[in-house]
Specification:
The chain is an alpha+beta fold. It folds into two domains: about 150 residues, Immunoglobulin-like, CATH 2.60.40.10; about 90 residues, Immunoglobulins (Immunoglobulin-like, Sandwich), CATH 2.60.40.10. Helices cover about 15% and strands about 50% of the residues. Strands 2, 4, 5, 7, 9 and 10 form a six-stranded mixed β-sheet that branches. A hairpin with a 2-residue loop joins strand 19 and strand 20. The longest helix is centred in the C-terminal third of the chain and has 28 residues. The protein starts with a helix and ends with a helix.
Length: about 280
């Protein structure tokens, strides 16, 4: 999964979890959808997000900070109040007014000395206040996720829990599915670097989705290409690896391989017939 699509998925997830209606969600945008960083000991680090009003009407926006965590192995997140996080992650503004098509650069300061030890999982929310006297008015809330590695993050422990792949594969690509388990002590969350080898066709390093301590994430791997014959699929992370053998006929080999088999069978049949004929003479 690419970083771009991961950011889009997080942005959509935030909007959904905050019960924003589809029509109202267009009244405000935050960029980027996710921020990653690292803090040195005692460092006070500044960052920013852009708050954009794409509509022509004026809006009033309030800002807040919450912590988040993954609540299951599907990657779903839940948000909650955290007093220590609120002290260590400060915003320049609590509330602003944006005119039509205006944008604001909202700065924040992350204080390593005040933030919780380990990886910090936070969300900066922007809430559009409903228009006064509007019928059935509803506040709209969207957010940006922050994943900040604090200095005292414990050593990461990641394992390949499962690897499955169909033993015979056709189509336009090789496909496999594997699960990664984060056995690191709390609080530890990261986007793992995964090496996927498809011997003898090389290997590549891909970035997995966010996985927090004690959670397991399942990842679908697809590698388009023209493959023929046995392929050894190996998934490796720092904590170990798993392998599976498949036989692949993909890409142009789907029509070329049967054609070659047919030609070979025809040549063999002709040779066989000539041999039998010569013996009978």
């Amino acid at each position: 999964m690419s970083r771009y699509w991961l950011a889009i998925i997080f942005a959509l997830g935030l909007t959904f979890l905050c019960n924003s209606s589809p029509a109202a969600a267009s009244s405000i945008r935050l960029q980027p959808a996710i921020v990653r960083g690292a803090l040195e000991g005692g460092e006070k680090q500044k960052g920013y997000i852009d708050v954009i009003n794409p509509d022509s009407s004026k809006i009033v926006v309030s800002f807040s900070v919450q912590a988040f965590r993954q609540k299951d192995d599907s990657g779903a997140v839940e948000f909650y109040e955290d007093a220590q996080l609120s002290r260590g992650l400060l915003l320049d503004f609590n509330e602003v007014e944006l005119g039509g098509h205006e944008a604001l650069r909202l700065y924040y300061q992350a204080d390593a000395a005040l933030l919780p030890a380990g990886d910090v999982l936070a969300a900066i929310f922007a809430t559009v206040k409903p228009v006064k006297d509007a019928p059935a008015a509803q506040a709209v809330r969207v957010g940006t996720l922050l994943v900040l590695q604090n200095t005292s993050t414990p050593k990461r422990q990641l394992a390949v829990a499962e690897l499955s792949a169909s033993p015979l594969q056709f189509g336009s690509a090789l496909q496999a599915e594997f699960a990664l388990r984060n056995d690191s002590p709390p609080v530890n969350a990261f986007f793992p670097q995964i090496t996927v080898s498809t011997a003898p066709y090389g290997k590549q390093v891909v970035e997995g989705p966010l996985v927090t301590s004690g959670r397991q994430r399942t990842i679908s791997y697809v590698k388009p290409g023209d493959y023929l014959g046995p392929v050894k699929v190996t998934v490796s992370v720092d904590g170990g690896q798993k392998s599976a053998w498949i036989f692949a006929i993909t890409g142009f080999w789907q029509w070329l391989f049967p054609l070659l088999l047919g030609v070979g069978a025809a040549i063999f049949a002709i040779f066989r017939m000539r041999t039998v004929y010569n013996r009978g003479r």
